[in-house]
Fold this protein.
Amino acid sequence: MPLEFELCPGRMVGGSNPCFIIAEIGQNHQGDIEMAKKMIKMAKDCGADCAKFQKSELEHKFNKLALERPYNSKHSWGATYGDHKRHLEFSHEQYRELQKYAKEVGIFMTASGMDEMAVEFLHELDVPFFKVASCDANNFPYLVATAKKGRPMVVSSGMQSMETMQRVYKTIKEHNPNFCILQCTSAYPLDPENVNLRVIAEFRKKFPDIPLGYSGHERGIYITVAAVGMGAKVVERHVTMDKKLKGNDHEASLEPKELAELVQAIRLVEKSFGSNVKQMMPCEKVCHDKLGKCVVCKTAIPAGTPLTMDMLAVKVGEPKGVPPEEMNQLVGRTLKEDAAEDASLTASMLA
Ligand SMILES: CC(=O)N[C@H](C=O)[C@@H](O)[C@H](O)[C@H](O)COP(=O)(O)O
Ligand SMILES: C=C(OP(=O)(O)O)C(=O)O
């Protein structure tokens, strides 16, 4: 089973493909479509691969009492959680407008379907892939219905156990080979000690044939760059125009400058992954010529004397002599000519 697949038209993920960077606009648009468009453009300008939203059909995501519960947080946009969420939710028509705009700008756009009805809508909208938010990772009827639609999936793992994620992997696999799983801890903002990047390595053992990734809610960019170092092939970060804005996610989000820096840092780190062949690189010649060590004569050695280890030393020598790693093989050999103390011992001096 390949470790890579086409997540968006023409864009492979996994293997040695560049990490796919999702700018999660989420609900940081404040319910304002013009702000949402600005954020799509910003994601593109910063070099992200994809702009993402969260689509809910609120009566399907929440039960009545959950919608009616008071939401007194400083981040609230309404008296009840339902009013708050309604303020932040874009209509189908608005999604079409955003999709059209993202196409014009030239960036992939998708959303997390936060309930099965939302997934139905996103399927109709023809998004390139489905994002499964952490809160639906253990929603098995949803996972089966979503996987069966046949679009690639990016599945987050916040609030879940390894056992649940193993079941997620098995369940999706039965219906859809093209998915990846992201390590995620669902706290906003997330403290470094709760990130657990080592889970990526555990996922690698348990899920050897799918790309893995990271969905981060920490402050700053370093941890996400480290996740790429640990093998994340898809990363997702919330983005904002201003971290001080009202809303639960802004503080854990990246402002444009940081997003651009994250993209740059990831691309730089990816370049540095290079080759797994350990050898002296052509670019190291200058250093080697100047500081590479070689075998020199510790004492004066008359021609014909069998060499012993205590006649030899290792120094930066001029000219460059026999490499130190071949020193053992010199024992017992003789020289064609007399060698002075401290002279480099070159191959051409050997009898
Ligand atoms: C788990 C999950 O869905 N998390 C999402 C993605 O990370 C968040 O964006 C939430 O929608 C957000 O934090 C909710 O904030 P409030 O409750 O103020 O609308
Ligand atoms: C909640 C979401 O993502 P995550 O669980 O990866 O933070 C989401 O995609 O809406």
Notes: The chain has a mean pLDDT of 97. Residues 54, 112, 131, 133-134, 156, 158, 182, 184, 186, 215, 236 surround phosphoenolpyruvate (ligand 2) (CB under 6 Å).
